[in-house]
Amino acid sequence: MFLQQLLNGITLGSTYALIALGYTMVYGIVQLINFAHGEIYMFGAAVGLFLVTVAGFSLVPALLGAMTFCMLLGVLVEKIAYRPLRGKSSRLSALISAIGVSIFLSTFMLLIAGPNTRRYPEVVNPTTYHIGSLQLSSMQIIILLVAALLMIGLNLMIQKTRLGMAMRATSEDLEAAYLMGIDVDRIISLTFAIGSALAGAGGVMVGIYYNAVFPYMGTMVGLKAFSAAVLGGIGSVPGAMLGGITLGILEIMGVAYISSSFKDAIAFGILIIVLLIRPQGLLGKKISKKV
Amino acid sequence: MLQVNDIDVFYGSIQALKKISLEVKPGNIVTLIGANGAGKSTTLKTISGLLRPKNGSISFKGREISKTSPNKIVGMGISQVPEGRRVFPSMTVMENLKMGAYLRNDKQGIVSDLNAVFDRFPRLQERIKQMAGTLSGGEQQMLAMGRALMARPELLLMDEPSMGLAPLLVKEIFDIISFINSTGTTIFLVEQNAHMALSIANYAYVIETGKIVLSGPAQDLINSEEVKKAYMGG
Lengths: 291, 234
Ligand SMILES: Nc1ncnc2c1ncn2[C@@H]1O[C@H](COP(=O)(O)OP(=O)(O)OP(=O)(O)O)[C@@H](O)[C@H]1O
Ligand SMILES: [Mg+2]
What we know:
heterodimer, A: 291 residues, mainly alpha, two-stranded antiparallel ribbon, 11 helices, 2 strands, 3% strand, globular, B: 234 residues, alpha/beta, Rossmann fold, six-stranded mixed sheet, four-stranded antiparallel sheet, 10 helices, 38% helix, 26% strand, binds magnesium ion
């Protein structure tokens, strides 16, 4: 029972982690809480659904298509709504702009798709595998595999490639990054692109797993993924992964052992306690003053 | 090589530089000395493109750069060792040095420059895997200098490299600056340590509250009563 819940928690948590990565990477570089990120995730779910139902795509092409769409959408949002404000106005204006984009995107979806909850057709064989007493559905396996693959890929990219190093440098010290000859605007675009693509993948997989796609699905998940990023230590990539999985486990355990009607209250309650004890988050660095 | 003409620079409504003009000739060490808050760092940041002058022009090798983006300015051959080192603290010494060579793709040239940096700063080689944030102040200064050299600049801007270092280390750093210059790199050095700066420079400018108040060959300024009084403790 406990192991089963743990497994379910990790599955849910790995989708939070995928979304939390976008919050944390963007925050790490431009110190902006990108409130529109949850809506990017929602668009991922919707575009995936469109590709499966209308275009007849199977899972993997639909996933890739939704990721590409979200990547472009994320880059576009940054160009239109955040870049013009950068350096010229306060962080607060950028935050307001992000809230505006978030409302615009969900309302836009409401307008074109209507308020109803839509469902994915059967894209994977609904097989359940048994390992001892553990049950594992085929969709769970796909979520765990895809999430693991994407996160390993992201880590390799950040740690080993020239662009990944430039991303780290820019998030550590933007001005010094300029002095290295790094095209900081391009790195910011890249960060939005990667974060949005990951959220898009999360959207498709959650859409299929919970079988529900609707215009406001990004609000609650966005909040949770953001909290997961804070729990892990905002700005820290491994932190977002750990924070996402931790939050997923907390949520499922709360439902299993306490009460399903309190599931969010329990998860967020524990989050508050952790942050009271460790304000910088699980893997965050002590908040240092920027020069 | 570098020509700054009548630049005005503002922070919001506060004017930090007032009609600053100066020139750096190729092959020279030129220094800009002045007290805290005089506008030295502002001058360097403006040359690097991190700040924009409201009026005036900056040209480098005959090309106007006052509206060029900072990353492109690095590509044109101007690197800066910023005030307070500004190494990337959670990146290793090696990664910091690689970031210095970010715009280059000549693998062999990078390797040979890396070796040159290690020859110059053996302490960096011993610590290539150490996080830059855990280096001592002196080591961070060496890393910041090595990192800037990895771009193979024609003009190196340095902002108070002696800040916070013990006298022996200051001497070492200034020897290295002279050496870098002897290998053909032009240097524009900002300092509060007027004595040291003037002793290695060819030409010097003195800045006070955003204005150049004095300039001349460094030798002349060393002996000037005015400079002695204001910057070298009598
Ligand atoms: N970001 C900023 N916003 C507003 N004013 C600033 C800013 N940076 C510098 N100033 C002001 O501009 C003036 C020049 O500062 P600058 O940093 O260029 O001085 P400095 O000569 O480098 O001094 P120090 O030797 O202490 O480094 C100072 O009066 C300073 O207060
Ligand atoms: Mg300064």
